[in-house]
Amino acid sequence: MKLTLIKTAYVLSLVLSCISISPSYAQMAEQAEPVKTIATLDVPRYMGTWYEIAKFPNWFQKKCVANTKAIYTPKDGAGIQVLNSCKTAGGEITQAEGLARQIGPIDSPKLEVRFAPSWLGFLPFVWGDYWVIDIDPQYQVAAVSDPKREYLWVLSRNPQLDNKVYQELLQRLEKQHFDISKLELTKQ
């Protein structure tokens, strides 16, 4: 099963790098105003477990029907270990292990992530953008996207998020020109 996950992650990384979308809300918004990240990211505070609250639908998470989460762990001077997991329709837990690295200074909110095997890490197209675009001061709620607004995840330290907090975050995302009508809530 582990070999299947590695192959799946590799194919996922390759396809992600090759996908180009037709003119859409995201591309029009990108042309109007670039995506803004948070000013700085305290990476040690960001480590730990984050639960997916909502996301833009994407093909590489189609198997996931509930309990989607990510665990970030520092990896001895080599970036951040990423362990994504979710529950499938069959009730199984599926996992994908990856690596994240910061782009720029030590407090940069711009990261790249890959799920391809480490020996392919030198190839730029196996890395995907992971930009922290919103986070509360307590590092309990975050939004992550990419420079093209193609992907969007709302994350929380808890599996449930207060509706008022969620609605306030949606307002901030709308100001960043995200089409929040595309967000799908994640079942817990």
TrEMBL record:
Compartments it resides in: Cell outer membrane
Keywords of the record: Cell outer membrane, Lipid-binding, Lipoprotein, Membrane, Signal
Domain Lipocalin/cytosolic fatty-acid binding as annotated: residue spans: 41-188
Keyword Glycosyltransferase: no
GO biological process, one term: response to stress
Signal peptide as annotated in the record: 1-26
GO cellular component: cell outer membrane
GO molecular function: lipid binding
CDD domains reported for this sequence: lipocalin_Blc-like (cd19438)
InterPro entries the UniProt entry points to: Calycin (IPR012674), Lipocalin_ApoD (IPR022271), Lipocalin_bac (IPR002446), Lipocalin_Blc-like_dom (IPR047202), Lipocln_cytosolic_FA-bd_dom (IPR000566)
PROSITE patterns (alphabetical): PROKAR_LIPOPROTEIN
Pfam short name (any one): Lipocalin_2
Protein purpose: Involved in the storage or transport of lipids necessary for membrane maintenance under stressful conditions. Displays a binding preference for lysophospholipids.
Similarity comment text for this entry: Belongs to the calycin superfamily. Lipocalin family.
Description of how the protein assembles with itself and partners: Homodimer.
PANTHER family: APOLIPOPROTEIN D
Name of the protein in its database record: Outer membrane lipoprotein Blc
Native organism: Polynucleobacter sphagniphilus
Lineage of origin: Bacteria, Pseudomonadati, Pseudomonadota, Betaproteobacteria, Burkholderiales
